[in-house]
Amino acid sequence: MRKLLTPAFVILLGSAVFCPRPAMALRFSAPTPTFNYTDASGKKQSVEVVDKYYPKKIVQPITKADAQIDPKLRRAATIAEERARAHSLSKCWRFVKEALVAAGVVKSRPQTTLAKQAAQELVNSYGFKKLPVSNPYEAPVGSVLVYGAKRAAGHVEIRTETGFVSDFHSKTPSRRPLIGVFAKS
Questions:
Q1: Residue 39 to residues 32, 43, 128: CA-CA distances in angstroms?
Q2: Which of 20, 55, 107, 148 is the most core-located residue (most Cβ within 10 A)?
Q3: Angstrom distance (rounded) from CA 59 to CA 157
Q4: pTM score of the predicted model
């Protein structure tokens, strides 16, 4: 009987007694944290705590410069980016006009007051052409995107390499209906 109680056998027997299922410990994980609160009706509620945030992915954020587009329009996009704010001031057409004049794309300041009227004025008075683009993400850098609205003033923005700019920066285009994408050659 003494031969059976060797130190190796005792260790093996002890580990079997104290850890019958070593793999069982791997199955347990930390519980998901919850936030407990009492709602307006006095009922106790709990919700899982969100520890990771996944913002909406931008499918096509970056665009390239088109060689056929006037380089002054790319300069206008840069000027508009430098002057843009973090949030809208509801002065998109004013900021785009100033960027176009500062870059030398147009010689005089456009006279229309509403953003949705920009398309006609740019084509009729300043030599812009409507591009065959219906997706704002496919617009070349420096092109002017004009959006309509039924009762509102509309919206105008310039396409940049990383998004869109008017009186504010945005990685996504306006949700208004697109009238057209305009550029000079």
A1: 21, 6, 58
A2: 148
A3: 19
A4: 0.66
